[in-house]
Amino acid sequence: MIRRRFLLGVAGLAGLLAATLFAGWWQVDGPGARTPRLSIAGGPPPLAQAEMTLTDHEGRRTSPASWVGRPTLLFFGFTYCPDVCPTTLSDITGWLEALGGEARDINVAFVTVDPERDTAEAMADYVDMFHPAIVGYTGAPDEIRKTADFFGAFYKKVETESGYMMNHTATVFLFDAAGNFRSTIDYHEAREIAVPKIRKVL
Amino acid sequence: MNTASKALSIALLAGFFFAGPGKAESTQFGDLKVETPWARASIGTARPAAAYMTIRNGGSATDQLVGVESPVSGMAEIHKVKTKDGVVSMSPAGPLPIGPGETVALAPGGLHVMLMKLRQPLEKGARFPLTLTFERAGKVTVDVPIHGVGAIAPEK
Ligand SMILES: [Cu+2]
């Protein structure tokens, strides 16, 4: 009887462990993965393959494919974001200032994951507060979804008491002038690490 | 509202929000000390704003920050930013315990006071009052200077 109970207990524990492992796999590597940072093995495809159409903060229709020819720094966010996005845009501003003339010919793209509220006009008001090289992009919801998927960026709307917020990938993507993905800069990474990473794609 | 009372309320508001420089940047409050509070300027009132500070507990008992409120915001909460696999999310932090001798920093990328439903834009160079409610120490109001939209740290 005791032995039976013991065996049942062991089986139960093993089952629990398997379930935990499975849940971990599901969320990290499996279909439930919320690990979009490099959800595409080896990083996003070359920019030349990007076929979506976005609108920049000055109202021009354009595509990420048009970034080819100059190195590109790409970041996803939204202008109703009170903490992470202004911090990242400030960090980027600081990196660009540190690079000075070296970063003269770089595309700095800030793509919204909240096209519902971030019109081209809203993007213009916002990017105006940061480094002049930063260009804001918005687009139709399906084009934004296609863009994020292309780059392996994640975003999700979360309802709150006062409206909604967006969970999103805050990683900065770096591409060389040929449009090939080269590296990422993590959220709030130190300038001493970020600036050399950018220098490598210049 | 007549002209005189309108003028008076404008003067009061101006005094309230433009108290000017020269105020202490830290507030000692019983065993607690609230240091270098600051907020980012807002663009209009539609978007939420964030405020930051450092809280030191010099006492011998744990206290908890249980609430925040400000006349500039119709809804203020303490939020925590989490980063997982490059994805950032933000959610109410709940009561914030500060142990004896401990310092809790509200700083970009970690904890912030989220100021939602702004009643007025937060303008760079102005200030606003923010009331913190602690479980043991009670309520304290600090004067928060507003820095630029691009600020990431309190100005020295
Ligand atoms: Cu928040």
Automatic annotation (TrEMBL), chain A:
One of its GO terms (molecular function) is metal ion binding. InterPro entries: SCO1/SenC (IPR003782), Thioredoxin-like_sf (IPR036249), Thioredoxin_domain (IPR013766). Keywords: Copper, Disulfide bond, Metal-binding. Disulfide bonds join 81-85. Signal peptide: none annotated. The keyword Transmembrane helix does not apply. Transmembrane segments: none annotated. Residues 43-202 form the Thioredoxin domain. PROSITE patterns: THIOREDOXIN_2 (PS51352). Cu cation binds at residues 81, 85, 168. The keyword ATP-binding does not apply. Belongs to the SCO1/2 family. This is Electron transport protein SCO1/SenC.
UniProtKB/TrEMBL annotation, chain B:
InterPro entries: LpqE-like, Lxx211020-like, PCuAC_sf. SUPFAM superfamilies: DR1885-like metal-binding protein (SSF110087). It comes from Oceanibaculum pacificum. It holds the Pfam family PCuAC. This is Copper chaperone PCu(A)C. Residues 1-24 form the signal peptide. Keywords: Signal.
